[in-house]
Amino acid sequence: MVLMDPAGPSGLQPVSRFDWERLIRRVRMHKTTKYVALGMATYADADGSRVRPGVDELALVLCISEPTVKRGYSVLRELGLIQKTKQGNRHAKEADTYRLTAPKNLTGLPILGPDDHAKGA
């Protein structure tokens, strides 16, 4: 019997909005990326699914530029903290849909210790 990896082939595991927000609070990243991440979380369902603010909408709501939002999305994807689940239809002005995720192995992330202090401090 072959067991499927719950994180799937990507090595990412879905996380709830609450757990993801706690993880984002601890991950060391540029302040605008963290701002984009926390803004995205406000659009997520409780289980971390169906995150679909468009770049233009999130830029408007957060009072930042669209390129800044796009860079934030890119960094969050690279870190394994979001995963695109559906491509939006640009002609119908539909936003992409994302899922809040965490890498299966967090050791690659620059992260604060459990007490929100720098490791070794």
Question: Could you give a short description of this structure?
Answer:
The protein is α+β, with helices and mostly antiparallel strands and 121 residues long.
What's the gyration radius in Å? 15 Å
Rough outline: globular
User: How much beta, percentage-wise?
Assistant: 5-15%
| Biggest β-sheet: strands ordered side by side in the sheet | 1-3-2
- Regarding quaternary structure, what we see is single chain
Order of helices and strands: EHHHHEE
Average pLDDT over all residues: 88
Rounded to the nearest angstrom, the distance between the terminal CA atoms is 46 Å
- Helix share bin: 25-40%
Q: Determine the structural class based on helices, strands and strand pairing.
A: alpha+beta
The major sheet is characterized as:
3 strands, antiparallel
The tally of beta strands, per DSSP, is 3
Low-confidence segments = 1-7
